[in-house]
Amino acid sequence: MSRQVDDNSYSSANAIAVAGLNLALSYENAAVDRLEKRLSETIVPEVKQKIIHHLDQTKNQQERLRERIKVLGMGMEPTSDKGRLPIPEPPQKLKMMIESSSSDKEREVWESLNDLIVERAEAIMYRGGIEALQLLKADKKTIKALEKNLKEEEVFGDWLEKINPKIAKRLLTKQIEEKKQGKKKMTKKIQEEKEEEAVSPAAV
Ligand SMILES: [Fe+2]
Q: Is residue 178 part of a domain?
């Protein structure tokens, strides 16, 4: 009887663990898509390098999760579904305004903040998952797999937190400079046209 109770609670704990692992996997599936999109869009070389590295890590994270799901079994297969990443969604009008009027540099600054939000959210998810698995007395290898994933999220999140303000400053300073240069060129052109008009016989 007691064995039966133990078996039942073991399988229900395992079923919850597998559901949690699949949930994490669904977020990582979505994260791969986002990282690939960012890789094609980013205009900052060092961000590109880090994204390549983290994309590789994320694929390994998916593999770790898939492996643990298969080992724990419970009749559940590793999911290929994609969860929704916690990126803030501005009101539609504001979103359209931002998207239509932003420069590539401004867009990079917006997206770098979203990169950080996603990585921090992933870390929060893994921390919660590890705590839950410890409470459920899940097997150590599964907890270790989540700890490894958590570490990678924290390292990338820490890097983004440190580098984002520096990149934003660099990009926006450059943008201001370019605008100033553009204005100077425009004023010079207008000045030259005025001078030409003044000496041209057609203008007389
Ligand atoms: Fe990540």
A: no
